[in-house]
Amino acid sequence: MILIAIKIKNHTMSGKLKPVILELVLSVLISYLFNEFVIAELLKGNVGILDSSNYAIQMELALFYAVIQLIVSLFTRINYQTTYSSARLSRGVSNEKLGLQYYSIVNTSEKKLFSYVRKYGELLPARYTYDPLLRDIFFSIMAIEDSNRPPAVRLLERVAHHLGLSKTTGIMQQDGGKPLTDEESVRLAASYIERMWDSYLRTFAKSMQSRADGIAISFGRTWYRYDYRILGEALESSFALLYGDYCGTRLLDANFVFREVKGFEERNHYGLLPDYIVACGLLFGPESNWLSEGEAFWENSYSICLKSDSEESLDRRIALYKEGAGLEDVNSLCEEIRNGGGRVFKVQFANMGFAKVFCADVEKEILDELGSGWKRV
């Protein structure tokens, strides 16, 4: 009765009867368990029940906090679904479309995001400072994982890890072979998310989207550059697919989280957005070593070339072709040309299909001694 009175006073009563009844039942259950395992023992004079080093009390507290957090998350979610459904229906949208939106309530308030940055920002590698979209991705994933497994649940997971019932722990849900603190999981996740971002950039660089409005991504042997607007807009509509590399499913409606985090970071920079981002990173190790030094990009999904290839005089250009060429064939030829003072400015390559190397100033001896199926075309 007291709980119902408080909810009526605070206008927090759900519009459905079943959730309220369930909340009452769970509240009574928590009170019973607390009375049975804590108060009863204290009345018997067993003050050791409050010893924080006691393994049993750790389990009890973890379960107690986990159940409380479960109730809070459950009814926040129910309230969200009811509110969201009402908002959608008021605009005449069919209720059949609501299911895709019920992913999770993720706290992306400025207060919460500031707390993440303040507590964990200094643990991130230097690359996160120079690559703002990578940073946005990291804190978006952190917001989702923190909402899915709040601190009370993570406490229970660390206890369950000793029993072999949980593998991933910490705010970023990483598997470290031991129970991880939030800080330890952040350090592990930072490296993992960097590899996810590298994979996304490599895929995007070869895609049609990367050339729809100029060259979106270019790179050297130890660095890369991307168009902030193009990549940012792409991520706003595809972050959920990238997040699938982290959580194992690409069907969650997580794009809104990235948009909120990205907006938060942009406000921290006064809304003054960069045009291009340049950061250290090795995106295309073997491929960038084929070419002579300079800024390269993917002309299409199988052609890599230097942006300055127009500097080569037409009368000095030649093309070398090989059917059924493999990666090692291209590596050897390009290295031989460069070591001989020649310049490689474009390579077309389909592994075990064909290779075509465009070059200039190649020594006559190299051309005379072409072997292993290479021919001039």
UniProtKB/TrEMBL annotation:
Residues spanning the membrane: 20-43, 55-75
This protein's UniProt keywords: Membrane, Transmembrane, Transmembrane helix
Protein name: Uncharacterized protein
Species annotation: Slackia equolifaciens
